[in-house]
Amino acid sequence: MSAPQDRIQGYLKQLDSELSKYPVLNNLEKSTAVPKSYAALGLVALYLFFIIFNLGGQLLTNFAGFIIPGYFSLQALFTSSNTDDTQWLTYWVVFAFFTVAESFVNVVYWFPFYYTFKFVFLLWLSLPYFSGAQVLFRSFFIPAFGRHFNQAGSAGLRAKADFAAKTD
Q1: What is the per-residue pLDDT across 125-156, written as a single tens digit (0 to 9) for each?
Q2: Contacts within 8 Å (CB) and 24+ apart, 41-45
Q3: Which locations, inside or outside the cell, does it occupy (predicted)?
Q4: Buried b (16+ CB within 10 A) or exposed e, 93-111
Q5: pTM surpassing 0.70?
Q6: Which candidate, 28, 80, 104, 114, has a CA 20 to 30 Å from the CA of 9?
Q7: C-alpha to C-alpha distance for 56 and 17, rounded to whole angstroms
């Protein structure tokens, strides 16, 4: 076998071992005789096909922008680390700004394959590997809005809110 085929087989084995953690997928593999990794890649390909050809593109991109990050945000809230909390809070601030800006400018009608680019953008924003929300926050939001939130009164705002919540 050539090197690219070996590499692809290695990735498939790695994906299969990750998917083996889920009993539902193991049962599905036994009942259909289709490997879990092939089924997962087929679903991803179908998902991308629907987005590229705008067959439910808005619904599918909203799913990628709300449901998946929402799950990881809830997961982050149940950890003791603040790093993941900051990452997801930053994502939600950037995502909210993007959603409001998108609602003012109806780009869908002028931009071909809009939902495909929006999907890729949302993946870039949300996936920790890329940290796109952090990049946008540091390069755009801090210079634009930082002066409004670095005043002496707003620095202790979080502490005051936490104190008020404890007294209730």
Answers
A1: 998 889 899 999 999 988 888 777 765 555 55
A2: 41/15
A3: Membrane
A4: ebbeebeeeeeeeeeeeee
A5: yes
A6: 28
A7: 31
